[in-house]
Structures are given as C-alpha cells and as structure tokens.
C-alpha cells in the first residue's frame, strides 16, 4: 500500500468523500489540522488522477512516516538528486511555527550548498507555494525541483513529496473563457461538476460491481452545460436537456467550444442536447449509465430570505424534484442519480426539501454515501456544499435503485 496525504479544498468533507468514492481499496487515516487527510491505497496516484478531482488541492506521497526534523534537509537533497542545474524547492510545513519554518528553509539551502547544489526556494515559512507555482516553477518535475510536505504533531513527523497539484489555469480557462455564462442563475463551479461526476462513477460501480471504460452521462437540467462540458472533457458521451431554449443553445455553444479547444471530435465522443421539461417522459435511444445534474436552485437571491419566502421556494422545488424522480422511475428505470437540491439559509434556520424522503422511496431509490463517509447532517444522509456568504446552498444526494 502507498501512503499519501491530500490537502483538501474549502469543502473538506466533500473532498474526502470524493477520494473515498474513487479509491475503493482506500484505508482512510487521520485528519491533520482541518484539511490534510492521510490515507493508503494500492493505486499509484499521479497528476492525471488529481486533475480528475474537484475537491483536492494537492497530493503528497510519503517519504517517511516517522521522520526526525533534523533529517529534513538531507531528505530534500535525496529528492533533488534527479534535478539538473539550479534547483527549486519548497517546504509546506504544518504544525510548526513560522520561526521554525524559517530555520528549515535556511538549513535546507545551506545543506544543498554544501553538497554543491545551487538552489532557490519558492514560497516562505508563512505562505507556502501556491499550487499554480508548483506547476510554473517545475516543482512537480523531478528534473527541476521538489516540494516537501511536513506534518508535525503529537503523532510525530510525516514527510512526503508533493506529486500533484491543482491546475488553476485549466479551471479558469474552462470556466471563464467559454462563450456562454449565465450569471442570472447559480453558477455551478467546474470543480463541483467534477466531484458530482466522480460520485456518479461511484454509483455505477456500486450498482454493477465494476466500471465501464466510459460512462454515458445524462444531465436533464443542463443550464449552460457545466456538467456536460466536464463529462466531454473526460471524453464521455453526453446527453443533456433543459426546459429553457436559451440554456440549450448555451450548452451547445459551450460544447462546441470545448471540442475545438481540446480537439474532441464528434465521431469520437457523441453529445446530444435538446429542449425538454425534466418532468415529462424521457424518450432516449441510448440509456445513460448515470444521471448527474444540478437541479433547480430556485430564484437567484441577493439577500437572506425570510422564512415565508423560503417555504414557498421549498414547496415549488419539492414539486419539481418529486415529478422528476417519478419521471426517471417510469421512463429510465434503474438509472442511478447524482443531484444537487437547494438548501435555503433563511434568517432563522436553513430549509431543506424535507418531503423528498417519501418521493425517493416511492420512486424506488435509496440514499447512499461512499464507505467511511459521514453525512453533513446525519438525518439527511447527504452532503452540503455551501460557502459562508451564500443564501442558497447545495445538498448533494446520491441515489441508487433500491
């Protein structure tokens, strides 16, 4: 088993669940601080694996699980043996004061100098290198440099080498450069779309016991096509529909843009987009492997809603969601579903779609989560995605045919 540490993003519970969903053999370890998650797996993880994740910032592979702090400069030297010319290094230090971190930077540079290695360091004791710097400065390339992740605490000192980091430029291109963005509705982040697709993979594997090479994804609330775009980016066939003609046109334009910039031919990966009310019967020639969708989040809000308004939004959403589940049950039986439902953070308390429990049972589904994953709120058996300043959060639900 290989030992790793993942630095989780701003939604650590969901990021951890995503990793557990994708690595069925994982042995989860402890959390170090709020965002560093230790785990073991037989899988040899790399940058391509991290590129498929929506919730993880970086991954480091273990060098020593019970290191002596004084040996860190020598460990760094070992990791830089394959580098050529002037090398770059960074230290990501957790559990030690900035003053101690400064000592390690100086000691490491001095040690390398004594060994005849000219070096420069990226980041500092207060602000470690940004993920994009790890890419730009070559710290993920064994020929150019290295970053060590040092976790120090009551359990000892864990040291690993960063092997993969989030590529912010790639996300920015897919999110900001696409031709159609609709700011009048809740904008689904590409990272969250990736996470939802990974939960879809988990459901298909749970249902079938194995994963096909590619999955056919259906998004019946496609909006401007963030989920279909991320599926196409993986070279997965895409089915997408929406009740809004404007949304359908937007999705088509965005998928064409994606094909052009990532050289994805229509003959190689199919995509079909059409106008349809998700509450009306689906008549598909190809049955999807899984439905992955951001359903209606209700009206866009600029202020925290009053309880009476949130109650009205909730009733409207419950009707749509119930009819949608019934429609899937009747016309796409046995298809697993990953969906987001709205949660309104009203002035007194949050409101969730409480009536959906009966609708789920009636449609022949059950709520599930990956092994070792605890729900955000146990009574809901789901995960909540929300930034602190948002008035409408997303409840992520994973539905398997019962």
Could you walk me through the main structural features you see in this protein, from its secondary elements to its overall organization?
This protein has 402 residues and is an alpha/beta fold. It has helices at residues 12-22, 47-51, 72-79, 98-114, 131-136, 168-176, 190-208, 226-233, 245-262, 307-331, 356-362, and strands spanning 2-8, 27-32, 36-41, 56-64, 87-94, 119-121, 145-153, 156-165, 217-219, 238-242, 271-275, 290-294, 337-345, 350-351, 365-367, 383-385, 392-401. It is built from 11 helices and 17 strands. Helix 7 (190-208) packs across helix 8 (226-233). The two termini are 34 Å apart. The mean pLDDT is 94.
Percent strand equals 25-35%
Mean pLDDT: 94
Query: Rough shape?
Result: elongated
Largest sheet: 9 strands, mixed
What is the C-alpha radius of gyration, as a whole number of Å? 23 Å
CATH topology of the largest domain: Rossmann fold
Estimate percent helicity: 25-40%
What is the count of structural domains? 2
> Would you list the SSEs in sequence order as H and E?
EHEEHEHEHEHEEHHEHEHEEHEEHEEE
**Broad structural category:** alpha/beta
CATH architectural designation of the largest domain: 3-Layer(aba) Sandwich
- Unreliable parts: none
N- to C-terminal distance: 34 Å
Tally of DSSP helical segments: 11
Strand tally: 17
Assign the CATH class of the largest domain: Alpha Beta
By CATH's scheme, which homologous superfamily of the largest domain applies? Answer: Vaccinia Virus protein VP39
């Amino acid at each position: 088993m290989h030992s790793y540490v993942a630095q989780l993003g701003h939604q650590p519970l969901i990021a951890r669940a995503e990793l557990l969903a994708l690595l069925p053999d994982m042995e989860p370890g402890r959390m170090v601080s709020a965002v560093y998650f230790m785990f073991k797996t037989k899988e040899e993880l790399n940058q391509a694996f991290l590129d498929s994740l929506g919730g993880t910032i970086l991954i480091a592979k273990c060098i020593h699980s019970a290191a002596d702090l004084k040996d860190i400069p020598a460990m760094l030297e070992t990791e830089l043996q394959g580098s050529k010319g002037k090398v770059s290094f960074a230290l990501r230090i957790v559990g030690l004061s900035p003053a101690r971190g400064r000592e390690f930077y100086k000691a490491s540079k001095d040690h390398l100098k004594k060994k005849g290695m000219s070096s420069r360091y990226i980041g500092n004791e207060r602000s470690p290198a940004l993920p994009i710097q790890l890419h730009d400065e070559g710290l993920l390339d064994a020929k150019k440099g290295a970053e060590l992740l040092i976790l120090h605490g009551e359990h000892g000192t864990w040291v690993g080498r960063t092997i993969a980091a989030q590529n912010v430029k790639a996300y920015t291109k897919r999110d900001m450069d696409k031709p159609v963005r609709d700011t009048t509705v809740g904008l689904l982040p590409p990272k969250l779309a990736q996470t939802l697709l990974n939960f879809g993979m988990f459901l298909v594997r749970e249902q079938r016991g194995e994963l096909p090479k590619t999955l056919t994804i259906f998004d019946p609330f496609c909006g401007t096509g963030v989920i279909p775009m991320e599926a196409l980016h993986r070279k997965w066939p895409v089915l997408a529909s929406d009740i809004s003609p404007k949304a359908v046109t937007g999705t088509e334009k965005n998928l064409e843009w994606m094909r052009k910039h990532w050289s994805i031919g229509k003959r190689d990966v199919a995509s079909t987009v059409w106008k349809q009310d998700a509450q009306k019967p689906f008549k598909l020639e190809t049955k999807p492997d899984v439905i992955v969708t951001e359903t209606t989040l209700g009206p866009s809000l600029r202020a925290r809603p009053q309880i009476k308004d949130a109650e009205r939004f909730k009733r409207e959403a419950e009707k749509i969601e119930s009819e949608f589940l019934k429609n899937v049950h009747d016309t796409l039986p046995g298809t697993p579903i990953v969906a987001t439902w709205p949660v309104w953070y009203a002035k007194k308390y949050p409101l969730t779609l409480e009536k959906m429990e009966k609708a789920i049972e009636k449609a022949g589904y059950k709520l599930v989560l990956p092994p070792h994953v605890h729900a955000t709120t146990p009574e809901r058996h789901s995960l909540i995605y929300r930034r602190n300043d948002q008035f409408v959060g997303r409840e992520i639900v994973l539905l398997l045919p019962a």
